[in-house]
Every structure is written in C-alpha cells, then in structure tokens.
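Recall the central idea of this unit: under ordinary conditions, the amino acid sequence of a chain determines the structure it adopts. In this exercise we apply that idea directly, starting from the sequence alone.
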Amino acid sequence: MNKKLVFYILTLIVIVILALSLSEITLRLYERFRIMNLSSEYVMDMQDYFYYVPDPDTGLWMADPDKTKPYINSFGMYDFERTIPKKKDVFRIAVIGDSYMNGCHVGLGNRMTDIIEKEFKGRVEVLNFGISSVGTVQELYIYRSKVRQFKPDLVILGFLTGNDVRNNSRKLESSTGYGYLKNAPYCEKKPDGRFEYFPARPGVGTNKISYILRRYSYLYRFLRTKAMPAIISYLKDIRKKETDFRVGVWPRWYMDYGVYESEVMGDWQEAWDITEHTVLKFRQEVEADNSRFLLLILVDPLQVFEDVNMTVKKEAGFLPPKGFSVDYPSERLVRFASKNGMDCLNLGPVFKRYIKENDLKEPYFSFRNDGHWNRLGNKVAADALKEYLIDRYKIDV
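Accordingly, the structure predicted from this sequence is:
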C-alpha cells in the first residue's frame, strides 16, 4: 500500500478520534455546569433515560438495580427503596403504567404517586412500577413478574389513550418503527376470536454495545436525545409538504391520532379488542390475588388543547376527518368499565375543569416541548385520585 495513502488514513483516524473525544469532553462539561438543557424545559441527569438493562422476565428495558444511582431501588424501580413485607395498618397501592406514571420528568418527590403517599401521611404506601414506552400487555407481565410479590391492596393501571391502544397491537406498534417493544410480550387475536399471549424473548436483539454506550457515553446520549429527534422532525416537515395525505389516512409519523377516530376499523379495531380483553384479564388476575383493581384513565395533551383541529393540522398536515374526537377513547373506556363493573377514574374532565377554573394557558399540564406531565399535571392528578381513594376505598387521611 502506498505510504502516502496509509499516512492519510491514519491521520483521518486520529482526527476522528480527537473529534469524538473532544465532543465527549465538551458534553460532559456542559452537563457538569448545566449549560445544556437536555429535556425541554426541565433539567435532569443525562443518565435518567438510559440507566436500563434488558430484563429477562419481561423483555423490557428495566432499571438496572446495581444501586449506583440513588433513585433506582433494589427492585429496579424508579422509586424510593421498598420492602416486600408490608407495614401493619398500611394500605399498599401499586401503580403500573408507562412514562406518564414513571414520572422521571419531574423527579422523585414530585410525581403523582409521591404526592399521594405524602398526603396520606404514612397510612398509604404507593409503589411506582411505571416504565417508559410500555402498553397494557407488557404491564400485565410486569404485574406478574414484579408487582404480585408485594401483595398490594390496590393495583392502579394507568392508561394513556394517546398510545397505549397502539402499544397493544403488534401490527400498529411495528409500523411505527420505534422498536421499543420488539422483544416484549404481546397478544394476537386469532381468526376464530381467541386471544393468544406470547411471552418475552429475552436475549433477542439486546445489544450490549448499545447498552455500554448508553451508560457511559455522553456523546451517544446526545445523538439519541437531541440530534436524531431533530433530524426526524426535519424529515417529518419535508414529508408533510411533499405528500398529499388523504383524509382519514394518518401518516406513519402521526398514526397515534387514529385512536381518536370514532369509526374504528381494521388494525385499530383489533388493537381495541386486544386492549379490552387484556384489561379484563388484568383485573381478573389482580382480584384472584385478593387485591382490588382501578383503571385510571390519564390525560394526553391533545385532549385538553383549546383548538384540537388546528393542532392536528399543524402536526399532521391536514384537518382531522369527520368522527375525530379526542374524548372518544376515554369515553369508550368509561363505558367499557361500567359495563364490566370495573372501578374507573377518568382524569379528562378533572383536567378540563381545572383549566377553566384557573384560566390556564397552553401547554397547561405538560412541558412546552414534551407532552409528559409537569409538576402541576402530577399535582392535579394526585388531588383527584386522593378524593377517589377516600370516597371509594374509605381510606382515612
């Protein structure tokens, strides 16, 4: 090989290594002095979203319980330290859900579950099993493998209509391209109407290199949380401008809007069937363990925006079709719960009433660049849930 060519190649390699090293050092300094805000309007440790390892029981990215972070307890939960034995005369609640319930965006002490625990002054213990990006099927498996051993008096299933129905459909979930649940448990509805559940596939597709980079490289985290989302957002804008979307046919980027169409068809109908079957199965297993079950319907930002039509047009590129209703999925779940004698609390009306009574301005209960609840959202949800717990389960304050 030509010596000059070898020299150029080696020089290029050195330059790349130096550039990567400088970027890594710069980002660590930025984080050290809080120059860069990595999560919209809130500041959080760069490792909060990446301190996870593949869990063999659920196939999900669970928190790594090696105790090097104070907010990860010995059970791998983003929660305070807990014990399996329950204290005498304490009402134990286990909350299961996705990132809205996990609440790492506001930090320990400010989440709905933390507020509830404080309000009842030691009479109630609230265990938070929330994990980002999961749906009802995966939450059922989380209950079996992680929650059941704690023998809670009440299990609260936090249901986010904005994406949980989609999460429960392998077809819809895979079409998003996210890949978060590719190895997680899932359910299929067979042609004869049967529902078949498939366990996690531990070890399949778990990338150790990716895990190491997630855990130790600030540059890798920056590329995943800032650079890639910016590129995707740019591509979305291009695609909106170049594509003539037909009314009612949601582009891949905004397919979650399909859950708000009251005329349910195709994959969405199957997703709803799987969702409702799984919620019933969930309650059955909880009650078989001598616990009570509560379906808590959460609030997606779109459901409380003042001008929903313009919000959808701005995001997806066209006005929503006839029959589009942000209240449809919540109202459907309320009817479903009532029909099946299921305890249910819908937070939608509570949030809307709070906006009206306090003359709030957008984005109301969420961060400006992130749909997750801010501290106010968690507080309003906690207040409503507290009232429900007192009224329904006669818990003394």
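The chain is about 45% helix and 10% strand.
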